[in-house]
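Q: Could you fold this chain for me?
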Amino acid sequence: MSLKLKRDPRNPLLLPNPHNLWESNFIFNAGVIYDEKEDLFHMVYRAMGPDNISRIGYAVSMDGVHFSRLDKPVLSPANKWEEKGVEDPRLTKIDGKYYILYTAFSRFGIKIAMASTTNFIRWERFGVIISEEKDKDAALFPEKVDGKYMLYHRIEPDIWVSFSEDLIHWDEGYPIMFPRKNTWDSKKIGIGAPPIKTPYGWLMLYHGVDEDMVYRLGFALFDLTNPTKLIKRTEEPILEP
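A: Sure. Below is the predicted structure, expressed as structure tokens.
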């Protein structure tokens, strides 16, 4: 028996806002986290207007379905590494602080950048933290591993991990999950969101791309004590076009 996700009939949850130019064309690739202490769902999302520059917006919800959002972006391009946009945020909370890993896009390529906040209004920006030219799809692991921070990221076509003692200086890392030949995830794969801790292991949602460039969603399970060790992954996608 294969697992398939069912689309909620209340979709879409957010639409482009014609009154805000920066998000009037598209909104997509959101990251959401539920804060049990606050009993709130926090969303950061990628938005584009007529200038085709990506910015990151913020929305909040009490039920995970009905969201209220700010009129202005919380993150916009701020340096040469981000001149063409800030894209695809992934959200993690560690020690009372929210961290966003996002893609910095410019003439110099795509790179992983980071920002943090405690209230989604004021932000500390760390800039590019990994300078590999074609590196994206990054998510910070929600716990330290052997006393170090860990992040998943994608150096095409594989999912990698890297470690850091201070969130600024990261090691070269190594790949831990690979595309599979002649399957729905044969061309490249990338993490969708930070993994969720379960009694059986760390549950990761990831996207896979086939040779026809069709994106589908699957999940993988990693060991509870060693989240670099892959235990199992879905043979079939759980969500597809």
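A (continued): The mean pLDDT is 95.
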